[in-house]
Amino acid sequence: MGDFVSQGLFQAGENYIGQGGVGPTSNGLPNSNLSWESTNQFDIGFDLSLLNNRVFIIGDYYRKKTYDLLFNVDLPGTSGYSSITTNLGEMENKGLEFSITTKNLVGNIKWTTEANITYNKNMILSLPNGEDQFSGIGIVREGEALGSFYGYIFDGVFASDQDVPEGLTTGGGINFEGGDAIFKNVNSDNIINEKDMSIIGNAQPDFVGGVGNTISYKNFNLNVLLTYSIGNDIYNSLEQMRAGNGFSPNPRPYVYENTWRKQGDQTDVPVNWMVKPVGNDRNSSRWVEDGSYLRIKTVTLGYNFNDELLRKLKVESLKIVLTGQNIWTFTNYLGYDPEVVTTSSENSRQFGIDNARMPIPTTYMLSLNVGF
Questions:
Q1: Rounded to the nearest 5 degrees, what angle is found at the Cα of 34, between the Cα atoms of 32 and 36?
Q2: Alpha-carbon distance 366 to 307, whole Å?
Q3: 21 belongs to a structural domain
Q4: What are phi and psi of 232, to 5 degrees?
Q5: Residue 17 forms part of a structural domain
Q6: Of 83, 69, 141, 150, residue with least CA distance to 353
Q7: Does 60 fall in a domain?
Q8: Is the pTM value of this prediction over 0.70?
Q9: First vs last C-alpha separation in the chain
Q10: Structure-derived torsion over alpha carbons of residues 335, 341, 356, 74, reported in degrees to the nearest 10
Q11: Range of the domain at 242
Q12: 339, part of any domain
């Protein structure tokens, strides 16, 4: 949430008839009743040491309820504002956290492993009048998790005109035909419209965690850190822009090679028309992907120079370190980086959306640490 949003914000650049001016921001409607969120939390856990302190296990169960959630609520355009920041609803997070540290080797070669895993279940408990809150692809609904995506269920492509159910339409006099996307007709009324929209994914992961290993032998030491996320969905807005309706000059090769072209083509890529009236590129599960990944986050190799060299150089310590960060990511996600997805600071209802942000770079650093 931005600063001073409760007071109503103005900004420069609101020009009128060629004259410079100052005017309210699109979400600058004041709200004197705005307050901070409040939280109640319960925790219980244990610490366990085994095998002469060579194995440490820590477990924790938590349950956290948050009240007076801060949200940007959309307003009709006739109000002159796009949204207002307000308090609404209750949310619960509950889950388990486990970590284990093991001293695998303790002789000349020392090897220590540290691993952790977290499971969290998020749920919206209540909203004003039980009404859904919408923002773009995001929806906040009672009984569902924050970060849910809302759209149509994509179910393939009509191979030919004969495969289209008779009279299937968008409700505006536009009929579907061969090569168009198949969207699930949830209410079976033969009309594909907003009544057929449903929750199509969620950005909340089932599990997140990491595994680190540290190995040392004589003057050498090596540390490798892996991080992972399992079960989270990503809405690939970049792919929607690249593969939808012919606007992009650089679709993925798969899209180009498998686009529906003629009656009878069996494919999962709809016909690529510029502005196809039925909306083949509309917000749908076609753009929702599994965002699970395993990343080699950090690898560090160090060498401590021996005492003889230290005495000659008249220093207390001397260490050379080679570090690699974000070396490789194992994932089936088609985007640039499954870890870099949009989380709107202005609207926490929308996250897990890939709007083509820059991926985390791979870096290598060589350093020399000298102590006097």
A1: 145
A2: 22
A3: no
A4: -85, 145
A5: no
A6: 150
A7: yes
A8: yes
A9: 46
A10: 130
A11: 35-371
A12: yes
